[in-house]
Design goal:
The protein has about 110 residues and is α+β, with helices and mostly antiparallel strands. It has one domain. It has 2 helices and 2 strands. The protein has a two-stranded parallel sheet. It starts with about 30 loop residues before the first strand and ends with a helix.
Length: about 110
Amino acid sequence: MWKVFLPNGSDHGSCNVSGPNSLDISGLNYPNTLVFVGGFDPLKDWQRRYYEWLRKSGKVAQLIEYPTMFHAFYVFPNLPESSQLISQVKDFIANRVSNSKESLVSLLS
C-alpha cells in the first residue's frame, strides 16, 4: 500500500522495515518482540517476513499464529481468540517485567 505514497521503484525503510533496504539492527539493543499472524490476514506474509527478519538479525522474537483469524481480530471481544491473544500479550509483558527485575537485582548485588 505504501507504493501509493512513494515514487515507483522505491522501497522506503520506514514503510517496509524488513524489506531489501532494511537497516542492520543486529548491533542494536532491540526489545524482545511478539508477532501475531492471522491466517486470513492480507498482511500475513509481511508479518512473517518481519518475524524472520528479526530472527535473522539475532533478535528474540516469538511468532504466534491464528490460522482461522483475520486482520485485527482481537478488537472483537466476542471471539474466544481475542481473549486468548490478550492473555498471551499479558503473559509476554509479565515475563519481560519479571526478567527485567531479576536482571536489575543481580546487577545491584
